[in-house]
Amino acid sequence: MSMLSNSVLIMEDCEDLIKPRGSTQLSNDALVNLLNLGDGLLADALNIKIICTFNADVRKIDPALVRKGRLAVEYEFRPLEVEKARKLAQKLGISADITRPMTLADIFVQKQVIRKGKKHKPLGFQNN
Question: What's the pLDDT score for residue 116?
């Protein structure tokens, strides 16, 4: 049994990879490899699960990725409702006046770090 067997492959920022075939030759080759790895003889042998994240409209991805029987789960991250955004900000110690739905990025950017008298926006998630 292979070390890859029963594994999960997580691929982030796959916008170029999942474009409809015909966009570019590079994306065609990569997409065909992804389809074979996720749903084909190779997939059957390895029992691999693939998670792809992307920031594109789902209507702009290759239809083969979402055909019946191929896509197990689809999840769209939307902005948090005002009350949920407020609760998260409070839990993180972020004092911000939240009056509209917000993404996680919007909430985290509310927290400012002060260094040497200058305000800097933190990069990434901060541990509290």
Answer: 40
What is the chain's length? 128
Distance CA 14, CA 27 (A): 10
Determine the pLDDT at residue 115.
Answer: 36
According to the model, what pLDDT value does residue 83 have?
Answer: 96
Dist. CA 53–CA 116, nearest whole Å: 37
Q: Which domain holds residue 93?
A: 82-120
Note whether 21 and 54 are same-domain residues.
yes
Same domain? For 48 and 97 the reply is no
Q: Looking at the structure, tell me whether residues 26 and 56 fall in a common domain.
A: yes
Task: Give the separation between CA 44 and CA 70, rounded to whole angstroms.
Answer: 13
pTM of the model: 0.63
DSSP structure string for 21-60: TTS-HHHHHHHHHHHHHHSSHHHHHH--EEEE---S-GGG
Residues 12 and 61 in one domain: yes
